[in-house]
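pasting for ref
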Amino acid sequence: MPLTPTDKIWMDGELVDWADATVHVLTHTMHYGSGVFEGIRAYPTERGVAVFRLRDHIERLFQSARVFMIDVPFTVDQLVDATRTLVRVNGLDDGCYIRPLVYLGYGEMGLNPLPCPVNVSIAAWPWATYLGDEGVANGVTTKVSSWRRHDPNAVPTAAKGTGMYVNSSLAKVEALKAGYDEAILLAPDGNVSECTGENIFIVRKGRLMTPHTSDSGALEGITQQSVETIARDLGYAVSYEQLIRTDLYTADEAFLTGTAAEIVPIRAIDDRPVGDGRPGPITQKLQQTYFATVRGEVDQYKDWLDYVE
């Protein structure tokens, strides 16, 4: 999805013109992939633009950095404030996507990352629905990928690491070239893990199920947690389960969740329609409540909004 440039990008404490936010070709992370990042969205509300679960995302960024033994040279509060400033300076009142990145910079080469300088950037730009308005409204088609998700003991899947997303890209390209919208990856043991950049839920007999994150290689999603909370508050049972491939085929409903994707129904998996091939009633109810929540229309969840003001 093409980028729409904004005026400024925050880099190491300074607001830099978009075109000048560059790095050296020998930046360590570009060669070895040892960086961490987040994806965050801001939405328009009656009070002005608000970032959804900003602090939770920045705290997860720091947790990811800790796993990779990267010392972030800023505090959580500083990056929260920097994000608010960036959205305000760029005039992104209609909402935006936000990408904080912690990366190892120029000055060292080789597999030992410890001597490398640590740099931090935050970019923000207008970004439409990740899987398209049609997908949000009517659902997407998916296939189970031939690529397996990482073993958590091979690379730390609990962290949102930059280089690890080669795995997701391979699965995404395979799915797109085969004519599908998205891929579902299985864990090394054959259980369901997640999609390329989203968690997956299925619904059976009114109960929501999503794979365990710790042993399936799936990232613990902030949108996933939000949907779990909303679903329980609406009276639905939610459980974390070991799911196998045929659980996907026999689900009454299925949907994926992620900051970029938001909540998207799945209408088919491996050419098998999910339910009647249309978004199910529980999925639709969760979508409606989630989109109202991020726009500040649900008092119960207003603590999840960080107003830029």
